[in-house]
Design a protein that fits this description.
The protein has 190 residues and is an alpha+beta fold. It has 5 helices and 14 strands. This is DUF2946 domain-containing protein.
Length: 190
């Protein structure tokens, strides 16, 4: 968390939080949702301002109940999640070495891989507590180049770096938030 945010929290500790105004979409884009977008269930307008995106990413975390938020100075802005709290991009360099990077630009080291019942690919990283991220849909081809799927379409193996094969595990999309301990649509908090 930025020092300026800590200072604002100390100066104004009782600023009410808000919900519904910020969404992390399925492709890792931050979206601003005005009242019309919220009322219509729309995703909102993508945020493109580089400095604002960096500020959001540096001050993005979860509370004790698994609700993700952006600490905007003294105000906690709870985030609506289109799927998971993290979205990762998978790439292979010229030598074929794979890397995963989250929407904030951080390295993501997988310890488990899941395939949901809608064809989404989820990675769980080695952090404590572990983070879960959905794979950006533009990277499904890279994933398939490094995976062997069984006939059931959800089991098999993903071949990571250094000969590490991570087994593919099945998960129902409807069960992902509960299984990995996050809240998709946070409640309003004071």
């Amino acid at each position: 968390m930025d020092d300026i945010v800590r200072q604002a929290l100390a100066k104004w500790p009782d600023v009410p939080s808000c919900t519904g105004w910020l969404l992390l979409d399925r492709r890792g884009n931050w979206r601003m949702r005005d009242e019309a977008a919220q009322a219509g269930g729309a995703a909102g307008t993508p945020i493109r301002h580089t400095a604002l995106l960096a500020f959001i990413n540096r001050n993005y975390e979860a509370d004790e109940s698994g609700q993700w938020f952006f600490q905007n100075g003294p105000q906690r802005v709870y985030v609506e999640l289109a799927y998971t709290p993290w979205v990762v991009r998978l790439s292979a360099d010229a030598g074929g070495a794979l890397s995963l990077t989250d929407q904030a630009g951080g390295v993501f080291e997988p310890s488990a891989v899941y395939v949901d019942d809608e064809g989404g690919v989820l990675f769980v990283d080695r952090s404590a507590p572990p983070r879960v991220a959905v794979l950006h849909d533009h990277d499904l081809e890279v994933f398939s180049d490094h995976a062997q799927l069984a006939d059931d379409g959800v089991s098999g193996a993903f071949f990571w770096r250094d000969g590490v094969a991570l087994p593919l595990q099945a998960v129902r999309r409807a069960d992902v938030a509960g299984r990995f301990g996050f809240v998709v649509s946070p409640a309003t908090r004071a």
